[in-house]
Design goal:
By secondary structure, the protein is an alpha+beta fold. It is built from 15 helices and four strands. The chain has a four-stranded antiparallel sheet.
Amino acid sequence: MKNLNYKNDVETVQFKKIPIEKYNKKKNYKACLMIAIIALIFFFFFFLISFYFIYKKANDNYLSQLQEKENIIQNIKEQLNNMNSHSIDEKKKLTSIEREFLYDKNFYMLNEMYGSKDNKGNGNSYNILFNTHALEKGLSHFDLRPFGKKKIKIIIGLLKKQSGFENYERLFSFINGINSLREYKKTYEEHKWIDKPEYKEVSEFLMNYEKIIEQQTGAYVMSKEELKKDYDIDYNKFIKSRHSTRNYKNMPLKIEDIKKAVNMAKYSASACNRQYIKIHYYPKGKMRQNVIDYSLGKGGLYLEGVNTFVLTFDANGLVGAGERNQGYFNTGLFSTNFVNALHSLGIGTCFIQFANSVNEEEKLKELNEIPSNERIVVILYAGYYDDKSIFCVSPRKDFEEYFTLHE
């Protein structure tokens, strides 16, 4: 039996030694990686939770604001109810100026262009004029370029909506809208832009309305010499000769003269050419007397020969909070040109400030068949000049008290 030498015959297994420093580095690397992953997970969940609470808070604030607005609206409704109530105790809850302001706010919210129910298409008509005027301004350039892609889509949409109302093809706004698009199409053809998609869209739309009557739109050019023929007049003398007139010939105005004056006044500046001013004429009868009864400051006037006008604006033609007072301004522009036009025809006039309460305004509108969506701005007395007239001197301030130069 062979003797085995243990030391020589058994293979010795040797283990490779790993330096303790390297082992610790690997261990630290794994630990850091694990910590980083845990930190990322923690921050991810922290972000989600934070986002949730931020969103919840924002949502709660939004809901709170909605509720607050709802409460305000409800409060206004209650106040308006109080305003219209016959109870003296309830009316005492609001001062007179508060009632007037609340009425103005409520009226505007109910009747402005986008707030109205628009059963007759009034708001849509004014919206067409608003947008076609923008298109017209785009055509009023010496160096034109393709434009109006979005605007024509809006106009086409409004015209399609307007075509759903009765006798739409006779409405000024619809005729104006169609002819504005015709001018737009013609301009594109003159500039050889017929490959543009907006040209094709307008062309296809207009094919359905070829029978709509022609109307001049767009822009035109005048020389200075041509303009001078029209403005070279003694306007200073004319404007000074017009006075508030308190006595008239006892006779009604001729409709032909009123028509001439209106056709002059209609060229007054009008916000985006919307032309929402209305003239109600009462030459005689009960309605004339109603106007006189509701007139303030009529003392000293000879009323026998008075022809009465009530000038209003249609609130359906206004849009946005910034235009809440625009109707009064536009009516002022129109009425000034109207009295000057009447003066040029031998007709004297006197403005009667309409400083009445809203209750009186509503009553007069009801009695004199003025639509509910209109606001009364001013009453105008008018009549042919008598053989002799007596006027107040009414001195005017000096230039310096009107004018301030800012440099």
